[in-house]
Amino acid sequence: MRHEYTMDNFVDYLRRGYIPVTKALVLITVVMFIFALATANTATFDTARSLIAFESPQLIARPWTVVTYPLMTLCGPICILFYGLMLWWFGGSLERAWGSRVYAYFFFIISAISALSVWIGSLATGLPVGLLGLGLPLSAVTVAWATLNPEATILLYFVLPVKAKYVGWATVASVAVYFAYSYPSPRNLVLTVFGIGGCAAAWRYVHLRWAGTTVRTPVIRLHRSRMRRLNPLFWIKDYRERKRLRKLFGEDREDRGGWR
Fold first, then answer.
1. CATH for 7-216?
2. How far apart are CA 35 and CA 74, in angstroms?
3. The whole model's pTM is what?
4. What pLDDT is stored for residue 235 in this prediction?
């Protein structure tokens, strides 16, 4: 039987799981990645990039870019996959807890705060700064989730168990390192301070609005139980256990003179 895909099917898919905003952001990221591959080195790509990307010297001319720059991420497929997983886990967890409307406001407002903070740093240092991709807002989302769940444990790279609070600090450190090394200048320390403005705003918002609450993270726990199968140590342990059981039942069969 032929199945027809309609807009109602698509809307129903987005609503399923109670994370429509997260699903939409992941879908947009993938679509824009394919678009960038298909139109690379063309005038179409250059025009789209100029309309979406945030550039500190062009803020007055293109103010909308403070919220559009996360919509196009230019990196490799592995990077896109990594960003998508982080957005699905951390962003989806926040969306379930806060509701889609609050989470959508949070994501785009924190994106704008990140861009405006970098813009102030650019004015203070005289260094032109450009933003394009999920990096900064996704870092802020991760910090917000880690602030709500400091003692939760996740499997870093599906192997190493790490508490969420350390993931949050590592995220802030990675943003600082990015700005410190991307803009080599004696003034980049000032720019780095403003670069983590979005993470600081996310941390402050959680403390002011959601203090004393904890976000349940069934998605993280589900993937922890399943993704451990990607761990080579799990394969070795599972192989040894199977071998031990085969040996045990084989000896038992010999003692009994065969199965009856």
1. 1.20.1540.10
2. 10
3. 0.75
4. 57
